[in-house]
Amino acid sequence: MSTLALINNKGGVGKTTTAVHLADGLARTGARVLLVDLDAQASASLALGVEREDLEPSIATALYDDQPIGTVTREAPGADVDLVPGSESLKSADIRLAQEYGRERLLQRLLEPAAERYDHVILDCPPSLSLLPINSIVAADWFLVPVEPHYLSLEGVGSLLDTVEDVRTGIGEAADLLGLVVTRADFRAKATQQVIDLLREEHGEAVFDTVIRGNVRLSEATSFGVSVFEHAPQSTGADGYRSLTDEVLERLSAR
Amino acid sequence: MSTLALINNKGGVGKTTTAVHLADGLARTGARVLLVDLDAQASASLALGVEREDLEPSIATALYDDQPIGTVTREAPGADVDLVPGSESLKSADIRLAQEYGRERLLQRLLEPAAERYDHVILDCPPSLSLLPINSIVAADWFLVPVEPHYLSLEGVGSLLDTVEDVRTGIGEAADLLGLVVTRADFRAKATQQVIDLLREEHGEAVFDTVIRGNVRLSEATSFGVSVFEHAPQSTGADGYRSLTDEVLERLSAR
Ligand SMILES: Nc1ncnc2c1ncn2[C@@H]1O[C@H](COP(=O)(O)OP(=O)(O)OP(=O)(O)O)[C@@H](O)[C@H]1O
Ligand SMILES: Nc1ncnc2c1ncn2[C@@H]1O[C@H](COP(=O)(O)OP(=O)(O)OP(=O)(O)O)[C@@H](O)[C@H]1O
Ligand SMILES: [Mg+2]
Ligand SMILES: [Mg+2]
Fold first, then answer.
1. Alpha carbon A203 to chain centroid distance?
2. I need a labelling partner for A158 at 20 to 30 A (CA). Which of A71, A199, B161, B214 fits?
3. Residue A122, exposed/middle/buried by CB under 10 A (0-12, 13-18, 19+)?
4. Cis amide prior to B57 (ω within 30 degrees)
């Protein structure tokens, strides 16, 4: 089993879109996949067809009330993926979990039973480096960093990778970088290729070959509660995420 | 004096871009403006020309070490605006400030001396509803919600407005909504107008007339550490934010 976390404290870079499409992409190769939504916005849950008023029980129930992960797992309505939804009760996670012993390992312990049932577990995280993303970094084998090819997004990648190393030193273990994924790329903008080149110069092989272009079909699919593979299978968004799924599988089997 | 906070826990919707351009837009009308960067990513500080290694002393110094706001205020390199930078040390704000008495009013107390010196104070917040955005909601007179016209962004607006009312009930005061600002609008996508119509249907007059279109000049300007008024004054991005600045001034004088 492999556990993959989507990490970037920069907001709106495509963490959820990538989490949902890797989950469905991997499921379409026949793998058994669990998607865990650790964001209070519950974007990944909504994107896979859960209604806002049906989000509970969520991952918060398992984290706060020590319930086994199986009691909060359900089939995602919009894809052949199992889902543990996020919910608004995650808003107070930092304050509620701050005093717990081993507060950075809560998710790792919770996910242990998942090892036998699933081939891949995908963790979608909120745009921060607070306790839930830190828990994901500790629980995951690998992490992926979606990066929008704008200068602002580029600036923060280095310090994000440093934070993961701080977690490794402080807690004793942390996920390894599977790669940086360029997302929402708009090649009409001159800066896009420049930023991608800078990223490849600085991070080399760590940057996935696949570049996910801006494609309205991706945000449209979300509004229908299905993946783009279902909503617009011939679109550049579907091509991009099929290619990324293949590359992720290649990198996982090579390690 | 008016204090305006940019609030939205959805990431990447244009909070920082709007904060920076309202600050500079208001300064260009002759007003004295202070921009406070409450995000550990320090996007607003970087967008106005501060180098990443020069971010300290930041707002964190004032919040953690009880320093007066003046000691951490500087002139922004890229605009005629005073700036209190953000910095990575804000990452641990929730845990460090959780035990303080009146932890939701720390920023309000800190900004009191600013009332005589400035006409407007702009607060840029991280993409969360953790302690720093809550402090901003308590400290500000008004808040603006940038919304990207995608279904996912739309979903969360209602619950965000509910959270502000919870703050008002729990703490005893909170900012009033100045308006919802549609940002990063791409009219090539048919869903864009649909989502804007839904937003106006649901929130009526609260939605600003000005719609900020997607315009690469905006992210380019950020990479040069200046506003779009400086980098590309004839661009649709500059037009959009000039019009928004006017509308904000109208709404402030009408209240
Ligand atoms: N390649 C793409 N093309 C077009 N739109 C995209 C693409 N990727 C993501 N989006 C849209 O951009 C917005 C931000 O994407 P998403 O929500 O996946 O980012 P995120 O990093 O998870 O955001 P947050 O930081 O709030 O968790 C969404 O409305 C989404 O539909
Ligand atoms: N109108 C626009 N047109 C084009 N690009 C834009 C526009 N507004 C913002 N951007 C770009 O989109 C990205 C996200 O914008 P910004 O950083 O302002 O959002 P944010 O809500 O502050 O993000 P975060 O949630 O990380 O704080 C940035 O790279 C920015 O340059
Ligand atoms: Mg997300
Ligand atoms: Mg920002």
1. 20
2. B214
3. buried
4. yes
Give me the half-sphere count of Cα atoms (radius 13 Å) on the Cβ side of residue A30.
0
Q: Closest ligand 2 atom, CA of B185?
A: 1
Check if A194 contacts B (Cβ < 8 Å).
no
Exposed, middle or buried, B162 (CB in 10 Å: 0-12/13-18/19+)?
Answer: exposed
- Name which residue leads in pLDDT, B155 or B93: B93
Nearest by Cα to B178 from B144, B154, B137? B144
- How far is the alpha carbon of A156 from chain B, nearest alpha carbon, in Å? 7
Mutate to test the pocket of ligand 1, among A6, A9, A17, A125 (most ligand atoms within 8 A of CB): A17
- Confidence class for position A88, pLDDT limits 50, 70, 90: very high
A99: pLDDT strictly greater than 90? no
Q: Which of A94, A159, A186 sits opposite B94 (nearest CB)?
A: A94
pLDDT digits (tens, 9 = 90+) for A55-78: 999 999 999 999 999 999 999 999
B165 alpha-carbon distance from chain centroid: 19
Q: Is the CB of A212 under 6 A from ligand 1?
A: yes
| pLDDT at position A190 | 87
Is the link from the previous residue into B149 a cis peptide, with omega within 30 of 0? no
- Burial of A168: CB neighbours in 10 Å, binned 0-12, 13-18, 19+: middle
The first and second tokens of residue B51, run together, are 């180098």
* DSSP conformation letters of A130-176: SHHHHHHHHH-SEEEEEE-SSHHHHHHHHHHHHHHHHHHHHHS--PE
